[in-house]
Amino acid sequence: MTLLIDSLDETNMLSDQQILDVERLVNFAAGKLGVEQHSEVSITFVTNDRIQEINREYRDKDAPTDVISFAMEELGEGEVEPIGGDMPRILGDIIISIPRAEEQAQEYGHSFERELGFLAVHGFLHLMGYDHMNEEDEKEMFTLQREILNDYGLTR
Predict the structure, then answer these.
(1) What is the pTM (predicted TM-score) of this model?
(2) Domains parsed from the chain with CATH numbers
């Protein structure tokens, strides 16, 4: 395993196998991106109410969303990058709404597992610095996302 993943299902809606599948997929993505061994990430599965609360508090958007990522390595103004050391890389947090994943799986006509995997990879790529704020970045991120999911065998 490439990453140390701390998963928490606040909804109690997922099976242990579903959580393990998400962790394996995120580790697969980390391997494809060459992420250092023993880097850390947390994945929390929440309700729509909880993700709306987080979205409102941190993004000033008072609506539920499907996935939110908080990268720990983004440097703020005046911050400097740490130099070396034996500390593991802490990539950040991925928060996924299970009800939204279920809704979107139905809407897009694919399995819940595919949607959950899509959201996990999407959130992970945000932790790795990818974004979709403009057309060029969106194309790069979504192409990589599709490649990871297809290579893993989690197709639509």
Answers:
(1) 0.90
(2) 3-72+88-152 (3.40.390.30)
